[in-house]
Amino acid sequence: MSKKEEIIAALMLDKESTSRYFGYSPYDFNVSKAIEDKLLIGHSYYFKTDFSNFYHSFYTHAISWIFMGKEDAKVRRNDQDDYANLLDHAIRSQQDGETHGLPTGSLLTRIIVEYFMSRIDKELRTKFLDTSITFNRYVDDIVFGYDHPQELYVIKKVISEVAQNYGIYLNDKKVMSTTYNKIRKNSQLIGYFDTLSKNIKSCQLARNVKGTDTKTNHLLNILMQGAKFNVKNAYNSFYIKVNQEILDQVKGSGKLAFRVLMFFIQSVKNDKESKNITDNSIYKVLHALIEKNTKVSEKIQSSFIERMLQLTFSDTKLILPFIQLLDVIQEKENEINNGIVTAYLKCVIDQMGKENLASHESTLVNKLYFDLKNNYHQEAYSIMLLFTKLNINLSEKMNVKIVTLITDSNDVTFDDFTLLFFLHNFVKSEKKIYLNDRFEFLNMIQKLLMTEDFGKECFVSAHWLLRYEVLFLYKTDSFFASCVDDYYKAEKCPNEDMSFEFFKAHYQLSNRGKLSDKEKKVNNFYFKLLDNNVNFTSF
């Protein structure tokens, strides 16, 4: 049996998992919940738990532990042909060799996690054979059903032993006895806009088929009257529902709200025949996002989209769903050639809190600096991504402040995604940056790219992505190349790490016989991509 077939077989046999379907049709949300119910119905008591910081604290070597046993895994750790070690290596290769943590958002991670957890499920299944205990798992969330109070001791003992064996930790804050009704408490947001969508489609249909026949037009007018809709009111009632579910701690309601809203806006078709932009259904749906009560001063009111943005300030995990929603909004704006929501959001975010702050920087810009200074990488990256989507530029003063933070602080770390944002800002600003500030910025990049063993650590060390992007820009952007050349002339650096021609020549000259075959292959691969002007990032 091939390893692919082995993984598929393991997931098919793992009947306790409802996360093994990966959202594949027809295993949608409602079907998955029905499968979960089948596993849990019939018990008198329920117990719920999950693993603490599962993705962030996961020890990658535990993958081989579960397949080989801890002792054998330690003996065979350097066996590169072993499948468990290959999975371990695949995870570590996504995070600069780190053994702690799992990169989120990757399909590879999801598959490995499900495969790993299928073995946990099998172990739990075996230990509960002589009991009435059943369980359901969704990724690392597990609910146990049992019939006798003394069985709770068995559940806690077994799950603690399993967690300890594989270096994962139970979340003490989320361990609790519960009821079936609480488990079954689901969000009511799915399908919230179904009626509104149907009404919009009915009105579009009626407008498109109207002709000269009086009787037909009369029937269509009746249809349109019955399909009247008020998008602004629908948004407002939706927000009240979302807010209530978040307060009631309905799991996943925050992320789900953005998904539901995103799919609704995505479903609205363009009225290409509409004579006025205000009659277009897309425009109506987008305008309602920023619409306010015209009888009251608009300056003292918040719009629906602002309230949805506020949810992301309360829970930083919601910033990326908000940005995904913004992607859909901007797609629809492009369809009608009107950036109504983007322009509004840019103005709101750019001005947020400025009147109350002596620094004259917006609230989000100050939050970005705070997050960078305190190593809150995910939060900072999300804000920078939002700025990029809305074409918001940092002030020259803030850019200098952040460059100083990167250069001078030993306690602050920066990942390449964060650094690429500032690199992009530098290129975009072109001649707006003073010469001294340009040199300060490039000096910071030069220091980050310096290595003890030039070439050997070329593309296999920290900041390899930053190095690649810098060399790519030097090749393809004349402004950046001229800045780099001016910097090296002024500073007289012996190693011109940002100059593509110098860097490649220096690499070829200084590394004969020093590199392993693996290092040569990696470096040559990236040089080949650079020779062909292949870019990894797009802002």
Task: Please provide a written account of the structure.
The protein is built from 26 helices and four strands. With 539 residues, it is mainly alpha-helical. Strand 2 and strand 3 form a beta hairpin. Helix 23 crosses helix 24. The relative contact order is 0.05.
Primary descriptors:
539 residues, mainly alpha, four-stranded antiparallel beta sheet, 4 strands, 4% strand
Would you summarize the structure shown here?
Helices cover 60% and strands 4% of the residues. It is mainly alpha-helical. The chain has a four-stranded antiparallel beta sheet, sandwiched between helices.
Provide the fold topology.
Blueprint: H1 3-13, H2 29-40, E1 45-50, H3 54-57, H4 62-68, H5 70-75, H6 83-92, H7 107-127, E2 134-138, E3 141-146, H8 151-165, E4 176-178, H9 180-183, H10 194-209, H11 214-226, H12 231-247, H13 253-267, H14 281-290, H15 304-314, H16 319-336, H17 340-351, H18 363-373, H19 377-389, H20 396-408, H21 416-429, H22 435-449, H23 464-476, H24 478-491, H25 500-510, H26 517-531
Antiparallel strand pairs: 1-3, 1-4, 2-3
Helix pairs in contact: 1-7, 4-6, 10-11, 13-16, 16-19, 18-19, 20-22, 21-23, 23-24
